């Protein structure tokens, strides 16, 4: 069967499943729409949260970033899992005890200030929308590639599917749909990895294979990889080459951002009890860890496979792969397939009929290149985002595995987009309209406005996905920085300090948000308009701190400003101190309710 | 992070002891959290370079695998410990 038909079958079947579940679990009341009636089991909730959290960035992008950089990109692995420790210890149980539906509702009540609530809503909408834009861009690329339609058509199809189940389903529909999406995406990620690990190391568990022995040479896999890439002038895979301060701050920003993203925090409102909120965070990380422990193995093994394919006869001495081999050997079919997307390219610069892949930026390689008559690196383009999607083809796996990976990549992007849309719609209908503009709105109209907000958000995200303000990575960095610098500190201080008052919290959030936005815009351009930046991440304003790492500093500014301002203004009223103290003990959580 | 303000009279003595015990567990857990990721995974990696794990050193293992496993252990330990603490202090739900 043709690969296109197989892809279509896998993607089509998985979508029929998601939409079927969304219709079956359709929400009837506002409570069900936002929080699934609080009847979701911790394991189910953990699985849905994992699907919600792991986006196109985790599924498609991360292993590729690790493959081509090695140790230095460990920040993604530690940052995107370590945030769950903060979430489980510092936020989840208390927010569940508080017993409201949204993050901004907590901030508004705890800081007894409608202004605080509106500031929180603004942070939340901006962070979530920018994140959705990145997802929609990913949806467009993945749909376009696997359905063999244009990027625009792919994006529009994806937008319709997200709209269908997020708008009609609400949280309950999304929860069960996301459980299905988790199953699809984790199978799609681990099955090819298991095959490849067996081929390379003889171990069926990729995470163990990574630290095991390379079957063909008998050497440890990572030692073999280090030797192969350094021979070609690339950085040693396992060594530390980046700036340490920036790596620490980047990891910390990803951790705090994870614990401050509203669509993830919202998940912990949907478990029945405080004790379950604690377990639920653990289960979420179990399901995330299945992918995150596999990702570094996928990266290292793919890097080894690709390098060996480019030098098929045992390193430089054996000679590079020939153009004829790439064009005729079925093992190299993936290269022609991906060449069509424009994301992979090669060029026989020295006209010797072979493609030499090496690091021509490394001065030590000049002598080697001269001695062998090379005229620069001839694998001219290898987009890191294609690595996971191309991986089963590179390893010569059967067609159904490739179809499964297509369905998995789409599941990752769609589930995250749907979760973010839900966070946006509840912020608008629940916090903005019901909370501030029209408190007497009927339940039916509130639900309607939530759905309209969702439709507007998806329209905006689709439009910006067609004309993205920058690369997905830039918008995702902004989303993380904003969440880290604005929402997380406010939530944490709201629970752990009774001294922080309304003015302190509002000042802290505004300060953290503004300084982070400013730093990002200075480096990435104002509102991401190209060429309006004053600095670049290669030569940042503050020492070695890149704009993607600034979220941690923004958060520190938020804390500091909040404490100083709160110290100069009136103490928190007694009823709020009582509220904080009641949030700290689980007793009576069942009684807490909306309104 | 917490303050010792005394103007909140709503909480009973037992609730305050419970909160102090919770804070101690959080402090210890966060020290371990930082030690395995920022410590062993990044800053202290040169010190661990002598301990080899599967073709590389222990710091690399912590950065790519070990820290994730410790995070998992921490969250489940915290959930179990707190659910026990709730009952010891009589503040559990229902």
User: Strand-and-helix sequence of chain B, N→C?
Assistant: HEEH
The tally of strands of chain B reads: 2
> How would the global form of chain B be characterised?
elongated
Helix/strand-derived category of chain A reads mainly alpha
Series of secondary-structure elements of chain A, N-terminal to C-terminal = HHHHHHHHHHHHHEHHEEHEHHHHHHH
Backbone CA Rg of chain B? 18 Å
Secondary-structure content class of chain B? mainly alpha
Strand order of the largest sheet of chain B: 1-2
Nutshell version of this structure?
The complex is a heterodimer of chains A (595) and B (94). Chain A is mainly alpha-helical.
Describe the model.
The complex is a heterodimer of chains A (595) and B (94). Mean pLDDT of chain A is 84; it is low at 591-595. Chain A is built from 23 helices and four strands. Chain A has helices spanning 3-24, 30-35, 42-53, 56-69, 74-98, 103-110, 114-146, 151-201, 206-210, 221-231, 244-260, 262-265, 274-310, 323-328, 333-339, 365-372, 387-394, 399-437, 443-466, 472-496, 502-524, 551-568, 574-583, and strands spanning 321-322, 344-345, 354-355, 381-382. In chain A, helix 3 packs across helix 8, helix 4 (56-69) packs across helix 18 and helix 5 (74-98) packs parallel to helix 11. Chain A has 595 residues and is mainly α. Helices cover 69% and strands 1% of the residues of chain A. Chain B is mostly helical and 94 residues long. Chain B is built from two helices and two strands, in the order H-E-E-H. A two-stranded antiparallel sheet of chain B has the order 1-2. In chain B, helix 1 packs antiparallel against helix 2 (58-88). The longest helix of chain B is centred in the N-terminal third of the chain and has 31 residues, at 13-43. Mean pLDDT of chain B is 86; it is low at 1-9. The chains are: A mainly alpha (595), B mainly alpha (94). Chains A and B meet through helix 5, helix 10, helix 11, helix 13 and helix 20 of A and helix 1, strand 2 and helix 2 of B.
